């Protein structure tokens, strides 16, 4: 009887070696792009949606390349200090690699890049842990958008419901989520049933680097980091 592949042991030394090789490959690919493309942008993202991001990358693949990976590895690839930077001024871009972000290498003119990123936005259902952008409240009374067989499920989500002559009825006002607060797992499911989308997948440009050029963009994100009292 052949051995099950699931029982095959993989030594830690092999996994460590593979991880090191992947990091080295990422560093090399990033450094190769410094010669292949005319400019580099550091961008951040919120409410990432992989399918939509893949479509965005596909649209720009003939002129550009994206990198998402470990921030520390990306910093090493560019150079974390003046002495380590691969090209002059790159350490300034490296300093902006933090949080949810990536690299965007391109041969597109700056005006086209700005247009692509500013116009990109995909609205989707909020996931657990995301911040609610509005307060959603349901008033006491019949919920005719739900069928009778959904009543047990709604009750499990914490909604005060009952069946009244085959109609799902809310026996008291109920707040699904509150603006500014994290969306709970139950709220996420209810919002999806209600068809309420409040998660916007957006991309924000932090800076642009090109030979002998460096530009920091005044985005809302950057302004908040400069003024902690306004956010955080």
From TrEMBL:
The UniProt entry's GO biological process terms, in alphabetical order, are:
nuclear-transcribed mRNA catabolic process; ribosomal large subunit assembly; rRNA processing
* Alphabetical list of Pfam families matching this protein: Ribosomal_L10, RL10P_insert
Q: Which InterPro entries match?
A: Mrt4 (IPR033867), Ribosomal_uL10 (IPR001790), Ribosomal_uL10-like_insert (IPR040637), Ribosomal_uL10-like_insert_sf (IPR043164), Ribosomal_uL10-like_sf (IPR043141), Ribosome_Assembly_uL10 (IPR051742)
GO molecular function per UniProt:
RNA binding
Outline the extent of the Large ribosomal subunit protein uL10-like insertion domain.
126-196
**Gene Ontology cellular component terms for the protein in this record:** cytoplasm; nucleolus; preribosome, large subunit precursor
**Subcellular location, principal:** cytoplasm
The places in or outside the cell where this protein is found are: Cytoplasm; Nucleus, Nucleolus
Q: Which UniProt keywords apply?
A: Cytoplasm, Nucleus, Ribosome biogenesis
Q: What does this protein do?
A: Component of the ribosome assembly machinery. Nuclear paralog of the ribosomal protein P0, it binds pre-60S subunits at an early stage of assembly in the nucleolus, and is replaced by P0 in cytoplasmic pre-60S subunits and mature 80S ribosomes.
Return the PANTHER family for the record.
Answer: MRNA TURNOVER PROTEIN 4 HOMOLOG, MRNA TURNOVER PROTEIN 4 MRTO4
How this chain assembles, per its entry, is:
Associates with the pre-60S ribosomal particle.
Give the similarity note.
Belongs to the universal ribosomal protein uL10 family.
Q: What is this protein called?
A: Ribosome assembly factor mrt4
């Amino acid at each position: 009887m052949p051995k099950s592949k699931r029982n095959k042991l993989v030594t830690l030394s092999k996994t460590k070696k593979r991880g090191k090789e992947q990091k080295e490959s990422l560093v090399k690919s990033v450094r190769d792009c410094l010669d292949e493309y005319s400019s580099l942008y550091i961008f951040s993202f919120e409410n990432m949606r992989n399918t939509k991001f893949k479509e965005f990358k596909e649209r720009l693949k003939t002129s550009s390349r994206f990198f998402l990976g470990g921030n520390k590895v990306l910093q090493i690839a560019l150079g974390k200090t003046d002495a380590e930077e691969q090209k002059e001024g790159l350490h300034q871009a490296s300093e902006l690699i933090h949080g949810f972000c990536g690299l965007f290498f391109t041969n597109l003119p700056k005006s086209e890049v700005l247009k692509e990123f500013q116009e990109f936005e995909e609205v989707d259902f909020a996931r657990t842990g995301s911040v609610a952008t509005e307060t959603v409240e349901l008033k006491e009374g019949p919920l005719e958008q739900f069928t009778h067989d959904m009543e047990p499920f709604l009750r499990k989500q914490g909604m005060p419901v009952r069946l009244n002559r085959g109609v799902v009825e809310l026996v008291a006002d109920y707040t699904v989520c509150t603006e500014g607060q994290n969306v709970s797992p139950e709220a996420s499911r209810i919002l999806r049933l209600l068809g309420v989308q409040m998660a916007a997948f957006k991309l924000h440009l932090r800076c642009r680097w090109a030979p002998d050029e460096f530009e920091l963009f005044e985005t809302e994100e950057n302004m908040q980091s400069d003024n902690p009292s306004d956010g955080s």
